[in-house]
Amino acid sequence: MSAHFSFLWRCFTISAKELAINEEIKHKEVRVIAGDSEQLGVMNTHDALEKAYEMGLDLVLIAPTANPPVCKIMDYGKFRYERDKRDKEAKKKQQTVEVKEVQLSCRIDVHDFNTKANNAIRFLNAGNKVRVVLRYKGREMAHQEIGYDIMKKFTEVCAEAGHVDKQPTIEGRIMSMIVVPLKK
Predict the structure, then answer these.
(1) Residue range 57-80: mean pLDDT, rounded
(2) What is residue 17's predicted lDDT score, i.e. its pLDDT?
(3) Same domain for 51 and 119
(4) Three-class SS state of 112
(5) Most C-beta atoms within 10 A of its C-beta, which of 81, 120, 137, 147?
(6) Closest CA to 10 of 47, 53, 45
(7) Alpha-carbon torsion angle 103, 105, 110, 112, nearest 10
(8) Which of 30, 54, 86 is the last residue of a domain?
């Protein structure tokens, strides 16, 4: 039996979030659970390792803070594969929201305005936020109400795809607001 332990069963590099397996378990006694959730009871770590090796599986420390620590006999490679697959699926289902920007000016023509509004609607329908920016040039700062009127008209055009999250504010020579998509 002592010759049985002369080789390393599995050699994995363990990161901070990985579980301790086989010879990495330094506790003297552990509570052991078999792969089919059958309680095998508290036993010496050496005996638990031997039992895992007999089954052709790994001894994995799943609850190191319990008293005594809990270990499970399982195929660690298969466990990691399934966990990584689950994590990958969860990451795939996550939706990343980007902030797209649409730039306007006080002297924007109707066709240009409609084109920018259509782009904003397209961005909102794709689930992205839209930052609407209006830059004042020269003496346009004296007529800020024109900028507010353009922003109001822009929100009315985009009303079916989104609503204003942050009202128009002026910072320096730039007026900006944030439009977010409507919840579906």
Answers:
(1) 88
(2) 56
(3) no
(4) helix
(5) 120
(6) 53
(7) -40
(8) 86
142 within a domain of the structure (yes/no): yes
pLDDT at 131 over 90: yes
Q: Does residue 46 register a pLDDT over 90?
A: no
Q: What is the CATH number of the domain that holds 141?
A: 3.30.110.10
Domain tally, the chain: 2
pTM: 0.52
Residues making up the chain, counted from first to last? 184
Among 104, 124, 106, residue whose Cα is nearest residue 114: 104
Asked if pLDDT for residue 14 goes beyond 90, the answer is: no
pLDDT value for 6: 43
Residue 91 lies in a domain: no
Q: Which residues contact 162 (CB under 8 A, 6 or more apart)?
A: 120, 121, 124, 130, 179, 180, 181, 182
Range of the domain at 69: 2-86
Copy the structure tokens of residue 56: 């052709």
Q: How far is residue 146's CA from residue 152's CA, in Å, rounded to a whole number?
A: 10
Asked if residue 35 and residue 11 are part of one domain, the reply reads: yes
DSSP 172: T
Output the CA angle 103-142-177, nearest 5 degrees.
30
In a domain, 116, yes or no: yes
Query: Residues 19, 65: contact at Cβ < 8 Å?
Result: no
Task: Give yes or no: residues 24 and 78 share one domain.
Answer: yes
Q: For the chain, what percent of residues have pLDDT higher than 90?
A: 40
